[in-house]
């Protein structure tokens, strides 16, 4: 415990204190109480790791501050209050916490249909893949399950080396170990199936910038990708069969239908996540996904055809390849391409007041292209640095776009929301 933290240090999230200093009396009492502040429902008590064998001194320090003089008679409440500090038996508390977490997890999983193998858990906690709202409807249930498994595994880890001393028999210890492993595997499988694994890749560039800016060291040697690849990334890099074997069905326990639903869920997550960056493109991809869901997977040939189409869809998502061809003037300019593709919908939704046709007929194609390039040029030349999230600077961007769209406020607002989600316009 660092001495300077003893005065004025107030951190409810402090759960562990490591004592490697000789502390006495009130300093020792003050130090151990740092872990005693509650911090949400997950924290019941703190932990003290004692490197100096101060347990006897802890008891003495507590005895000084624990006496009948500290029992305050609250006349307003009509009964006495016990304000003494009590040391709990950590083995008893640890066992109670483990048993409670185990029981809560068992209650949560009780509705899962028998035989309660991986596939039944996936269906119960993720819903039917054919239902586009299934993941949203079961999200709260999955989060509760993730927390329950984390609480169970953490309580088990706290007692793992002392289960026998806590009163568990050898058979009970083996059963506990099996349950922890099983639920940890189920939790990982559900996260993969629902596309909810933590993906740190979007933060990689910012992390590297911070490291390069504020940490002085020899140049780093690239050893590999930062973090694990998502299922869709693996499909692109290794092909769909390798991706299934490495990511979705590592244990080899899933049926073909469960694998197909896992792929569908991950593709749908990608579409929902990136929808605002190019609404028209992702609407097209969503329609293709709906067609893919309806495809039969009854026999081996149909299943292989499903996988082939799924792989093609994932690659089109990654390449952001639209249905129609792109004019040569837009090649290499992804932001202007997105604007060009979405202009018909923006103008159609805006109604009157815009001097350009709302429908993407051939005779208006050049007009759409001219407007898309003009919007792109205006944003690159006139948008102030760091405008996203700054109300005053966002107003400058809106004012720059307003005359380009015939001073139509609805069209300007819709276009602004589109360009705001383009990473190329900073």
Q: What are the main properties of this structure?
A:
single chain; 426 residues; mainly alpha; 4 domains; two-stranded parallel sheet; two-stranded antiparallel ribbon; 4 strands; 56% helix; globular
Overall description:
The structure is a single chain. By secondary structure, the protein is mostly helical. The protein folds into four domains: 3-70, no CATH class; 90-194; 205-209 and 231-319, no CATH class; 333-420. Helix content is 56%, strand content 3%. Strands 1-2 form a two-stranded parallel ribbon. Strands 3-4 form a two-stranded antiparallel sheet. A hairpin with a 4-residue loop joins strand 3 and strand 4. The radius of gyration is 30 Å and the shape is globular. Mean pLDDT is 78; it is low at 70-81 and 353-364.
In short:
The protein has 426 residues and is mostly helical. The chain is built from 17 helices and four strands.
The stretches of 5 or more residues where confidence is low (pLDDT under 50) are 70-81, 353-364
CA-based gyration radius: 30 Å
| Secondary structure tally: strands | 4
Determine the strand fraction and express it as a percent band: under 5%
Specify the number of helices: 17
Shape category: globular
Count of discrete domains: 4
Q: What is the structural class?
A: mainly alpha
For the terminal residues, how far apart are their CA atoms? Answer: 45 Å
Report on the biggest sheet: 2 strands, parallel
- Element-level helix/strand string: EHEHEEHHHHHHHHHHHHHHH
Strand order of the largest sheet: 1-2
Rounded mean pLDDT is 78
Please bin the fraction of helical residues. 55-70%
């Amino acid at each position: 415990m660092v001495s300077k933290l003893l005065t004025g240090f107030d951190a409810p999230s402090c759960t562990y204190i490591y004592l490697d200093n000789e502390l006495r009396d009130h300093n020792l009492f003050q130090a151990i109480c740092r872990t005693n502040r509650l911090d949400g429902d997950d924290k019941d008590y703190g932990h003290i790791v004692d490197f100096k064998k101060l347990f006897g001194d802890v008891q003495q320090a507590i005895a000084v501050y624990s006496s009948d003089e500290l029992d305050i008679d609250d006349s307003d409440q009509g009964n006495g209050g016990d304000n003494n500090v009590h040391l709990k038996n950590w083995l008893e508390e640890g066992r109670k916490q483990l048993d409670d977490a185990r029981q809560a997890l068992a209650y949560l999983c009780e509705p899962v249909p028998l035989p309660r193998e991986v596939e039944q858990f996936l269906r119960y906690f993720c819903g039917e893949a054919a239902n586009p709202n299934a993941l949203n409807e079961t999200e709260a249930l999955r989060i509760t399950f993730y927390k329950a498994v984390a609480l169970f595994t953490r309580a088990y880890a706290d007692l793992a080396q002392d289960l026998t001393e806590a009163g568990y028999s050898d058979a009970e210890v083996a059963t506990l170990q099996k349950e922890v492993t099983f639920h940890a595997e189920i939790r990982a499988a559900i996260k993969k199936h629902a596309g909810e694994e933590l993906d740190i890749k979007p933060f990689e560039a910012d992390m590297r910038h911070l490291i390069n800016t504020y940490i002085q060291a020899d140049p780093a040697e690239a050893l590999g990708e930062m973090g694990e690849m998502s299922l869709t990334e693996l499909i692109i890099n290794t092909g769909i069969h390798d991706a299934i074997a490495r990511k979705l069905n590592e244990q080899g326990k899933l049926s073909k239908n469960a694998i197909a639903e896992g792929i569908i869920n991950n593709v749908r997550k990608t579409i929902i996540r990136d929808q605002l960056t190019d609404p028209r493109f992702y609407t097209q991809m969503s329609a293709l996904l709906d067609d893919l869901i309806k495809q039969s997977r009854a026999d081996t040939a149909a299943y292989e055809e499903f996988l082939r189409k799924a792989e093609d869809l994932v690659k089109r998502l990654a390449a952001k390849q639209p249905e129609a061809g792109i004019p040569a003037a837009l090649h290499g300019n992804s932001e202007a391409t997105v604007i060009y593709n979405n202009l018909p919908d923006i103008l159609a939704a805006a109604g009157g007041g815009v001097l350009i046709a709302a429908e993407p007929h051939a005779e208006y194609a050049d007009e759409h292209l001219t407007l898309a390039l003009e919007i792109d040029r205006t944003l690159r030349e006139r948008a102030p640095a760091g405008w996203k999230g700054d109300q005053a600077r966002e107003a400058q961007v809106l004012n720059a776009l307003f005359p380009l769209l015939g001073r139509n406020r609805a069209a300007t607002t819709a276009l602004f929301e589109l360009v705001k989600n383009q990473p190329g316009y900073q």
